Automatic annotation (TrEMBL):
UniProt-listed GO biological process terms: isoprenoid biosynthetic process; quinone biosynthetic process
Similarity annotation: Belongs to the FPP/GGPP synthase family.
Organism lineage: Eukaryota, Rhodophyta, Florideophyceae, Rhodymeniophycidae, Ceramiales
Needed co-factor(s): Mg(2+)
Domain of life of the native organism: Eukaryota
Entry-linked NCBIfam families: prenyl_cyano
Protein name: Prenyl transferase
Record key words, sorted: Chloroplast, Isoprene biosynthesis, Magnesium, Metal-binding, Plastid, Transferase
GO molecular function, one term: metal ion binding
Pfam families, per database record: polyprenyl_synt
InterPro entries: Isoprenoid_synthase_dom_sf, Polyprenyl_synt, Polyprenyl_synt_CS
Keyword check for Hydrolase: no
């Protein structure tokens, strides 16, 4: 696949440029420690793929090629919710770096990190309430519930070699795809175009969210720590069995022993990764991601939008797959 595929921001350049400034404004707080902790989260930057998806969707489905103030704010709220979830994830996973930058609990401590995450969730809820749209509040609030449920599902299946692909997909929906699906639906709910079916774009968000997570999990196995900006093999170390490893269990019995030992010996993670790479499981996991991307593409193609309006929504799909190439 073409390695030059980039996230489409040309059509939303003005809105995207204002995003970072607005994010810092939204987390401003009098308490200097809490603000510093929250600011640390945004310091690493990141591609801002979630707000790019929402801003592109808003622009593509608008009747006058514009993005409303409410839709811009929703994109910002979604990024804050996502960032808040990362703080708690990093504590649970005992991850010292993210995107090459020290994590909040590593710079401060677990207590401050938890409070920073809670603060961001609270700020996002306040700004969400100020959209004055009860239906949007309901659907976005569900994301935070899903995050918690996803973490619990992941925790209860830790180092469980009986976990199924169906359970993995369900957990991936709660932890990643729910945010994209619900925020895509909410973006359409805030649109001036009443001809767009919001549930179609809920499914669009769900499928690209699942594909993104599946590929993210593949990269955890095949990439270096430098490429990831965090330790490679972290999922395995924490007992989070992802698609590639689950598929490999069918042919590599050695993996059962390593999982039962909870990868406690120094070379166990490397042994497991080597075993997975000896099978076709990485390709099987990629094929599963491709299926979800194709479903997302089909949804866009069926919408009553012009070729130009569909372009960015399709480019997002190709970008997500291109991360693996």
């Amino acid at each position: 696949m073409n390695r030059t595929i980039r996230l489409p921001i040309k059509s939303i350049k003005e809105e995207f440029q204002g995003l970072n400034h607005n994010l810092y404004s939204m987390i401003a707080v009098d308490n200097s420690i809490l603000y510093s902790a929250a600011k640390q989260l945004f310091k690493a930057g990141g591609k801002r793929i979630r707000p790019i998806i929402l801003l592109s969707l808003a622009k593509s489905t608008s009747t006058n090629n514009s993005i409303s103030i409410e839709q811009k704010r929703l994109a910002e709220i979604t990024e804050i919710i996502h960032t808040a979830s990362l703080v708690h994830d990093d504590i649970i996973d005992n991850c010292d770096t993210r995107r090459g930058i020290n994590t909040v609990h590593n710079v401060f401590n677990n207590k401050i990190a938890v409070l920073a995450g809670d603060f961001l969730f609270a700020q996002s809820s306040w700004y969400l309430a100020n959209l004055n749209n009860l239906e949007v509040v309901k659907i976005i609030s569900k994301i935070i519930i899903d995050f918690a449920e996803g973490e619990i599902k992941q925790g209860t299946k830790s180092f469980n070699n009986n976990v199924s692909i169906e359970e993995y997909i369900e957990k991936s929906f709660y932890k990643t795809a729910s945010l994209v699906a619900c925020s895509c639906k909410a973006t359409i709910m805030l649109s001036d175009n009443n001809k767009i079916e919001k549930n179609n774009f809920y499914l669009y968000g769900k499928h690209i969210g699942l594909a993104f997570q599946i590929i993210d999990d593949i990269l955890d196995i095949i990439s270096t720590s430098e490429e990831l900006g965090k330790p490679a093999g972290l999922d395995l170390k924490n007992g989070n069995l992802t698609a590639s490893l689950i598929f490999a269990l069918n042919t590599k019995e050695k993996l059962y022993q390593l999982i039962d030992q909870e990868f406690q010996f120094n070379n166990n993670i490397n042994e497991a990764i080597h075993a997975v790479k000896q099978t076709n499981s990485i390709q099987k996991a990629k094929d599963m991601a491709i299926e979800h991307i194709q479903l997302a593409i089909n949804i866009v193609e069926k919408e009553n939008l012009s070729t130009e309006e569909k372009k960015d929504l399709l480019l997002i799909c190709y970008y997500i797959l291109n991360r693996f190439s």
